[in-house]
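chain below, 80 aa
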Amino acid sequence: MGGACSKYGRVLYRVLVEKPEGKSSLGRPRRRWEDNIKLDLQEVGCEGVDRIDLAQDRDRWRALVNALMNFRVPKIGGIS
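prediction:
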């Protein structure tokens, strides 16, 4: 079972860290998924946290995602 976990760990690491091959588009670089994660962490005051370690701790990651979801929900009228 340890071999399967390490196999998926390598795949996830490659997705998070490696750069895709090919030509880049003209204009301003598109915002990457990783850039969005960094900005979200900054918004909630967690810019010094290693996002990969954070994502591997399910409880901490779930708490962060819930905090971000509540942070982004607009307040409508008198409803909070």
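The mean pLDDT is 75. Residues 31-73 form one domain.
thats it, cya
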